[in-house]
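Question (not urgent): is this output format expected?
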Amino acid sequence: MNEYIIGLDIGGTKTVVVVGDFDANIYDKIVFPTEAEREFSYTFEKICKNVKATIEKFKKIKGISVSIGGPLNIEKGIIYSPPNLPNWKEIHLKELLEDKFSLPVYIEHDGNAGALAEFLFGNGRGYKNIIFITFGTGLGAGIILDGRIYRGTTDTAGEIGHIRLSTKGPFAYGKKGSWESFCSGPGLLRIADYLSPGKFKTTYYIVKSVKENDRDALKIVKKCAKYFGKGLAILIDVLNPEVIIIGSMAIRLGDIFLKTAIEEAKKESLPIPFSVCKITTPYIGEKLGDIASLCAFIYNVKHYKKLT
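Got this back:
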């Protein structure tokens, strides 16, 4: 009989409850709106209702694994008002879930969880030093060094979107010219407003136009990709990774984005670390969020024990 893990992927728009095993096979999935504007107690009640139903259905549950945005104290499982969950003020989520269900609970930053998913089951397999980049509404990273997740002193490692690439760029993440101001969903629209004012209202339309080989859309994507490559070069020179995996928008924007970003990274980084760094997109694809939600538990209970 399989040993199951319940995974919670908690975002500002939706929450996903999945059931999987230690090999990341997914057996069930429930999706419901998070309703982030409501108080924590309201959403927590919905989470508990769905977790309870899942436990009753699958019986042999080993524990609960959570993927959620920061800032947070990962070891204690305390959530400190993430931008997409502003009403979750110092929420002791790990303790609350353990008290409610009498199961072990592990919590991880969603960027780190994505890195672990690719490290254990995707394009990071076989490597010890990898960086996983979340490239969507914002820009962040999960970092694995020497086969271990690197969280930093205050669990804030990986906030790459805050790196300044230009003193004259658009404003995002608290400063002008931050990496996130150029390379994110909103950043792509900022570039579009500069290069083709009024033509593109949404990132969806930019992606659609790229696939149709629209000249203006291709210029926008190439501009974004060049800034992305400049940021990649910083990571390559400082951390010397074996592989960098870029999620979300990099998949949707296609080969033109990845090719341009790699070309720019090659120009900007040192030759030796660049020569050993593979830059790619996730192997897992659309299942990444589901599998990532299981990985805090898998890593701590199964993989981390092998390292200690």
